[in-house]
Amino acid sequence: MDPRKLEALFPRELLKQEMSSERFIQIPEQVRDVYRLYRPTPMYRARNFEKALKTPAKIYYKYEGISPPGSHKPNTAIAQAYYNMKEGVEKLTTETGAGQWGSALAFGGAFFDIDVDVYMVRISYDQKPYRRVMMQFYGAEVYPSPSECTEVGRKILAENPNSTGSLGIAISEAVEACLKDDRAKYSLGSVLNHVLTHQTVIGLEAKEQLAMADEYPDHVIGCVGGGSSFGGLYAPFYHDKVMGRAPKEVEFTAVESTACPSMSSGEYMYDHGDTG
Q1: What is the C-alpha separation between 255 and 58, in angstroms, rounded?
Q2: Measuring CA to CA, which of 55, 97, 143, 215 is 20 to 30 A from 241?
């Protein structure tokens, strides 16, 4: 796809990063200033876990939960808010499921004076009020999806007034809201190349921290939902491997939830993220 067709949704700099083949993209100083609130995130050695497993292996884990919103998501939310601000964007629309991405983008928007509208899957909106309150605390508007704010939301509610929503519906509403507002762009917290690029700060830090302990991993293991956390952790080590620069053989393992095993089981099929 011609990236110019996506300019209605994303700022030019993020589209440039989406298509970039550069090895590194420098982190702007204003983004670094916000990162310094919680980065570098700590790397711990899990000594009690090693004892419980009775293993001679050394187990280290990188803890991204130290960020103010409580996850790895601000690594890209802060950067996305910054690049949108630089291009004069006044509002970002987005979707969120459990609320981690929505709270991260609300956090990022607060630093760069950008309004944030979050369409939150209705069942989570009802079940996770603490996430909703966090988003509102950072200044975001939060709507239970499907909502009465968009044509697709009203259509779905007309067909099923008791709809509990889905991420696809919330995406549809956020995209529609963006396209109908000249001041707005759309923001996504996973899937895209520029998101993964921003998340590699995790793996780059991990390499430096392990080097301080004179270590290099034999095995890199990470959890997978949309993939940005695991991708950000393993990508710098994987680059070492494919370029023949790794000091030892290293394996990579992605671990997914048994409640939603999208990679290891289930029917392989194509789906549209944008339900509407």
Answers
A1: 19
A2: 55
Q: How would CATH label the architecture of 76-186?
A: 3-Layer(aba) Sandwich (3.40)
Question: Tokens 């004892």 appear where?
Answer: 51
Tokens 């491997």, residue located: 241
Domain boundaries, the chain: 76-186
CA-to-CA separations, 171 to 76, 121, 138, 276, in angstroms, rounded: 18, 10, 21, 8
- Location of structure tokens 């993964």: 196
Predicted confidence band of residue 5 (pLDDT cuts 50, 70, 90): confident
Separation between Cα atoms, residue 43 and residue 152, nearest integer Å: 44
CB 168 within 8 A of CB 272: yes
- The lowest-confidence range among 3-12, 57-66, 175-184 is 3-12
The pTM of this model reads 0.94
DSSP 87: T
The one-letter amino acid code at 82 reads: Y
Q: Which tokens in the block code for residue 183?
A: 């001041």
Q: How far is the C-alpha of 276 from the C-alpha of 270, rounded, in Å?
A: 16
pLDDT value at residue 121: 97
